[in-house]
Amino acid sequence: MPLNPNLNSLAYFEAVARTGRVTLAAAELGVSTAAVSQQLKQLEEQWGVRLFRRQDRRLTLTLDGEMLFQTTTAAFRMIRGARSAVLRQRDSRQLNLRSSPSFAVRWLTPRLKHFLELNPEWGVRVDASPDFSDFETEIMDLDLRYGSGNWAGLHAECVIRDYVLPMCSPAYRDMLAAAEADPVRQLAQARLIHSVKALYQWDVWLAVHGIEAPDQQAPLRFDRSSMAIQLALDGMGIVLESVTLALDELQSGALVPLSTDFAAVEFPACWAVCPDRHLNRRIVRLFLDWLREAAAGFQEVAQQRLTGLGCPIRIAAAGEPGLL
């Protein structure tokens, strides 16, 4: 028996078994009845079994034929469903995009208006999820991911180099400064707000600066950066967070660096990720071109704001613990 059965013959067999007649199957397939009969004959010869009983011009499945039909009809139903889904996706002219939740809410969504104005014929579906896309099983064009860039076998392009620094509300900073002038000692008295899924964690930052972690009785820990940033805005402590996610608050003055004695740490953080084959899709190319331009403009604004605040920038060292 051939290791690779003739799929054309299986398609003809499935149509006959489903419709019950060679003539109906031939009409559905757009071929002659002779062509269908020939394919069935070849299939039976290849497999060495009888698939139909022929009685009074009627076809009934044998036990072997019934077993094959149960498998082929399920397989072709799935193929037809997949084809319909692919055609719907193509006809809908839609970009299917997944993103890290806080990045989607704080950076991407406020800028999508510009992309849609440039490309009014396209729709966008954004899935804000912490789960990375499975491109083999999901209908997803692109994933915007906050991470370290280590996605084997995929196109991973850094679009934003982020900055991380300790930030708090002006009132919280002034409260600490009134009690202690030394920012290192201020940290010992401060409440630290932890973004537990952030790339750069407090323990790494404190170790790099040679600062002993404060003895906190009730630390604040959140799995969403947007929540950690909000608590800092509310004056509940100091957050070590992304300038990419908190730039609006730094621009408005609602958040300020704890001290310009501490440099903002720069490192690659925001990535566009997809299989290489997706780069051939027009909508992916359009979105990536727009994303690169939007990210470059944002990067310039972020650098200007940090410079205006008097905050130095330090590029993270290769192999810096917990980061690269």
TrEMBL record:
* HTH lysR-type domain: residues covered: 5-62
Transcription regulation found in the keyword field: yes
Keywords, sorted A to Z: DNA-binding, Transcription, Transcription regulation
Q: Keyword Hydrolase on this protein?
A: no
Tell me the SUPFAM superfamilies matching this sequence.
Periplasmic binding protein-like II (SSF53850), Winged helix' DNA-binding domain (SSF46785)
Query: What Gene3D superfamilies does the record point to?
Result: Periplasmic binding protein-like II, Winged helix-like DNA-binding domain superfamily/Winged helix DNA-binding domain
InterPro entries for this protein: LysR-type_TF_proteobact-type (IPR058163), LysR_HTH_N (IPR000847), LysR_subst-bd (IPR005119), WH-like_DNA-bd_sf (IPR036388), WH_DNA-bd_sf (IPR036390)
Signal peptide (UniProt feature, chain positions): none
Q: Which PANTHER family match?
A: HTH-TYPE TRANSCRIPTIONAL ACTIVATOR TTDR-RELATED, HTH-TYPE TRANSCRIPTIONAL REGULATOR
Question: Which family is this sequence assigned to?
Answer: Belongs to the LysR transcriptional regulatory family.
In Swiss-Prot or TrEMBL terms, this protein is called: LysR substrate-binding domain-containing protein
Q: Which organism is it from?
A: Paracoccus simplex
Q: What is the lineage of its organism?
A: Bacteria, Pseudomonadati, Pseudomonadota, Alphaproteobacteria, Rhodobacterales
